[in-house]
Automatic annotation (TrEMBL):
Pfam families: TetR_C_24, TetR_N. The lineage of its organism: Bacteria, Bacillati, Actinomycetota, Actinomycetes, Streptosporangiales. SUPFAM superfamilies: Homeodomain-like, Tetracyclin repressor-like, C-terminal domain. It comes from the Bacteria. InterPro entries: DNA-bd_HTH_TetR-type_CS (IPR023772), Homeodomain-like_sf (IPR009057), HTH-type_TetR-like_transc_reg (IPR050109), HTH_TetR (IPR001647), KstR2_TetR_C (IPR041490), Tet_transcr_reg_TetR-rel_C_sf (IPR036271). This is AcrR family transcriptional regulator. It comes from Lipingzhangella halophila. The keyword Transport does not apply. Residues 1-41 are annotated as: Disordered. Keywords: DNA-binding, Repressor, Transcription, Transcription regulation.
Amino acid sequence: MPDVPTAPGAPDDPVETDAATNGQLAPGASDESTADASGESVPRRLLAVATRLFAEKGFDRTSVQEIVDAADVTKGAMYHYFDSKDDLLAEVYARVLRMQMTRLEEIAATGGTVTERVRRAASDVVVTTIANLDDATIFFRSLHQLTAAKQREVRTKRRHYHELFRSLIIEGQEQGVFADHVPADLVVDFYFGSVHHLSTWYRPDGKLAPTEVGDHYARLLLDALRPSS
């Protein structure tokens, strides 16, 4: 789909379009149908550019004009897919969370012991967070700059992930394979606090590969959940 034309010197405020979709593709349009001459879809290009600029300059110091210039699209094209700069930032994180949620749902639905499913889930969220560390870092650094409504929306989506992870902990506690003296809510909050802290110390050129970090984190969690003899 070609860029939607816009008038020269249009302001940074969102413009009215018939396809304002809060970061989603227009109804009836596939991701492929929005590809430009290079074969890359306009939404993906905008997200890639926004991620880079937010990392380099910060969310608050990056303007919509800079984003569309770097992505080589018009403002109208951007507002065709994203209502605002806030939507771009939220989508940077939301696309990672959607991927992680899909993977967690698959892990939770598989056979095997609850211990094995928790081990896989605990390791997976570490590995996928490291694989998308720039996105997660940018988002958590800038979350407070989103509107209150957008913050609530993102936190609701993240809570759904935490609730599914917590259900695995509760399952293990009810089976007696996990200690139940610590509430499952606290276990989840503690574990994901350490996951969100990854961006402060993990380095791709360090000694530990992502899978090794994931294995260590999962082992620490399971050791903490082991019932006392």
